Amino acid sequence: MVRIDDSGDVTKCWLSPEELGRLERAAGEDGWEREVALQLMGRCGLRASEVNYPSDEKLRYSEKGDLWLFEVRGKNTKGGSKKIRDAWMPDDVADDIHKFSRERDLAPSDPWIDASTPSVRRWVKEAAQRVTTDADAARWESVSSHDLRRSWATYHLVERQVDVRTMMSIGGWSDYSAIEPYLAEPTEACIGEAMRT
């Protein structure tokens, strides 16, 4: 079930990989573009405002790293003009992107997602409403587009223990203070694993 923290001014939600998958599939019921948008936020860590930037010409396979990277122009957490970074893309998302681009006959410079930031945020809310059940309605109703990025960052930082510098690089955080809020307390599974070794 979606984990929430409503102790501050903003309700924060963390979704498990399975919950993210449910949300992506629900978005896909209203169109593949919506599912891809949610994958870019929940599986690649993009902000809602960054989703309409990447295109095929920005995606590349790195032989050195044996991974997919794509260029993103996004927020500069130190302020000022937008910052360009290389974001990481899981292999299965890259497969979906390639199929999506071919099916839509997108030119290399055409963005994968042709939608405004408010539209992308609305898509997340609509997908969350679709997966809501009576038992967990309050939790799903609180889910926002930023929670997908929060879930991505926390999963990799806490559950997979990816080093902070790597996450700062691929997630677009300029300094430790900007990424520190994503270092949430470990889950019970993470505590159990750490204490067994």
Automatic annotation (TrEMBL):
Alphabetical UniProt keywords: DNA recombination
Keyword Transport applies: no
Keyword Transcription: no
Residues passing through the membrane, by range: none
Alphabetical GO biological process terms: DNA integration; DNA recombination
Gene3D superfamilies: Intergrase catalytic core
Matching SUPFAM superfamilies: DNA breaking-rejoining enzymes
CDD domains: DNA_BRE_C
Tyr recombinase domain residues: 10-196
Pfam families: Phage_integrase (PF00589)
InterPro entries: DNA_brk_join_enz, Integrase-like_cat_sf, Integrase_catalytic
UniProt-recorded Gene Ontology molecular function terms: DNA binding
Protein name stated in the entry: Site-specific integrase
